[in-house]
Amino acid sequence: MLNAKSLRCNDLLVTKPIWKPQETTQTGRNHKPRTKEKIQQGYNPFMRPELIKFCPLCGTGISQQFRYGQERPVCPACDWIFFADPKVAAAMLLEHDGQVLLVRRVNEPYRGLWTLPAGFVNAGEDPAAAAARECLEETGLSVDVTGLLDIYTGREHSRGADFVIFFRGRLQGGNLNPADDADAAEWFDYSHLPPMAFRATEFILGKYQPK
Ligand SMILES: [Zn+2]
Fold it and tell me: What is the distance between the alpha carbons of residues 50 and 48, in angstroms, rounded to a whole number?
């Protein structure tokens, strides 16, 4: 199991978040955008404490209280506290015979562009297991995780992750069979990579391709 102490911070890339919530356009004098509208325009309500109105546990109206160093939404009935936690994804860099495994996105944003097998880490899930799981789900290939590669920080779109943890793996078995978030899965030479969906993927492939 990896933990924070196993990471050497000077090896890790830290970037400023490159996605920001878009402000809604005012269309009328008293126009107040509704939450649904805001989400459609790029807001992530789970990172915006002021949009939390009711306690998800007991349904009581939320109050803003000073807790753990800042104002946070707190339930006055059951003392539930809202923390705007970052979304975490895990990705797999799998190489075989000098080629790297990529998948083509079937969903927006960046549908039709390529990336490493990756997805969100479930609550309570080991990030390394999440990377192997996503690889199996999207490509049909099972892998042994061989090590932690890097961490990329910075949300690239409104539904994206705030951190992507990259792992290396060794091909274990299975048949190449794209599914889930991918409609194609192929091996590529580093000298002939397809158009990439994410800056994180471009960065990792550029940094770790064999010299
Ligand atoms: Zn409550």
Answer: 6
Identify the sign of the CA torsion 142, 118, 207, 188.
positive
Only one residue has tokens 């109206």, namely 61
The answer to whether the pTM exceeds 0.85 is no
**Under CATH, which number does the domain 86-208 receive?**
3.90.79.10
Cα–Cα distance measured from residue 80 to residue 74, given in angstroms and rounded to the nearest whole number:
6
**Residue 70 CB partners (closer than 8 Å, separation 6+):** none
Query: For residue 70, how far is its CA from the centre of ligand 1 (angstroms)?
Result: 19
How far is the centre of ligand 1, averaged over its atoms, from the C-alpha of 44 (Å)?
22
Give tens-digit pLDDT for 62-81.
Answer: 999 999 999 999 999 999 99
